[in-house]
Design a protein that fits this description.
The complex is a heterodimer of chains A (216) and B (85). Chain A is built from 5 helices and 11 strands; from the N terminus they run βααααβββββαβββββ. With 216 residues, chain A is α+β, with helices and mostly antiparallel strands. Chain A has a 6-stranded mixed sheet with strand order 7-8-9-10-6-11, with helices on one face. In chain A, strands 1-5-4-3-2 form a 5-stranded antiparallel sheet. In chain A, a hairpin with a 4-residue loop joins strand 2 (80-87) and strand 3 (92-99). The two termini of chain A are 31 Å apart. Mean pLDDT of chain A is 90; it is low at 207-211. Chain B is an all-alpha fold and 85 residues long. In chain B, helix 1 (3-14) crosses helix 5. At the A-B interface, helix 4 of A face helix 3 and helix 4 of B.
Chain lengths: 216, 85
């Protein structure tokens, strides 16, 4: 079975920090348990509004991950609960979230200008390719073109000699297809403000690669 | 308010979050907020809160998740406005 992934990116200069701190705003993103989780992990360097958007990025990533096999799935942030966050060094964190009975794992990069998250059904994130980049223009068209160019470049490096293009599958989720080779790989694309990010899982031709997030 | 009036007011709610304002001219009940208007999903909570203020209603999670198209939004707003009476 194809392993799936979902990702999201939040440009911190594109969010309204004042509004994020309003209870009527963050209450539509965070559950009571997640507010307690923030209180327990205070001092880890994240201010409250950044924690709200970190949680958002996990929930949006989880939705993208699950929607691929459940096309009728609807999204609202409080349907996904972030249960655990472990902050690492150098602006990284990892944790666990649940959507109903489905357990998902996430890894995030916490950068002063963006939050980038990738979600997987497996805790190990083996063979995950994940990258973030800054672009000059922040229009929807520029974001969409740039993130596709970025993921196609990575696919070309992982699968030398194969020609890829990005299509939408029946659920409306992006899929990389190499028609000559009869191969397709689910990809997740995200963009916000001047930042773009992708994730995909590749089990070949270089199995065992454990990718680390890269900033381009 | 009838559906036409709600739609006209809803366009004002969507305006700040729609990059290409010209797309709002062609809005109808089938217009998808994310796929057609290219609204970033990070603004969906803003839209719900602005709609709550505009129509003096409260939109719960079960209703909010249905707000995919403009028609869905009008359904939810109508339902909440009627429940307020």
């Amino acid at each position: 079975m194809t392993r799936i992934t979902g990702n999201d990116i939040v440009a911190l200069d594109a969010i309204d920090r004042m509004r994020t701190r309003e209870p009527r705003f963050y209450s539509k993103i965070l559950s009571g348990g997640e507010k307690e989780l923030f209180c327990r992990t205070k001092g880890m360097g994240l201010v409250f509004d950044e924690f709200v958007w970190l949680a958002w990025s996990v929930k949006e990533s989880a939705y993208k991950c699950l929607k691929r096999n459940r096309p009728a799935l609807l999204f609202f942030p409080t349907k996904c609960i972030v249960e655990q966050v472990c902050y690492g060094s150098a602006g990284s964190c990892r944790g666990r979230a649940v959507w109903g009975s489905q357990v998902l794992y996430f890894r995030s990069v916490i950068h002063p200008r963006y939050l980038s998250t990738v979600v997987s059904e497996k805790e190990e994130f083996v063979d995950h390719y994940w990258a973030t980049a800054r672009i000059g223009l922040s229009s929807y068209a520029a974001q969409s073109a740039a993130v596709r160019e970025l993921v196609l470049k990575q696919l070309g490096a992982v699968y030398p000699g194969m020609s890829w293009r990005i299509i939408k599958d029946r659920a409306g989720c992006p899929m990389a297809v190499a028609e000559d080779a009869g191969t397709e790989i689910p990809v997740s694309l995200a963009h916000h403000g001047h930042y773009i990010a992708y994730s995909f899982v590749s089990e070949g031709p270089n199995p065992g690669v454990i990718s680390t997030p890269v900033f381009i | 308010m009838d559906r036409r009036e709600i739609l006209d007011e809803l366009k004002k709610v969507l305006w700040p979050y729609t990059e290409n304002k010209a797309l709002l001219d062609g809005v109808n009940e089938h217009t998808d907020l994310v796929n057609d208007l290219k609204i970033n999903s990070a603004n969906l909570v803003d839209i719900i809160i602005d709609a709550e203020s505009k129509y003096n209603i409260e939109i719960d999670m079960d209703s909010a998740e249905k707000m995919i198209t403009v028609g869905n939004c009008i359904d939810v707003i109508t339902e909440k406005m009627n429940a307020r009476k």
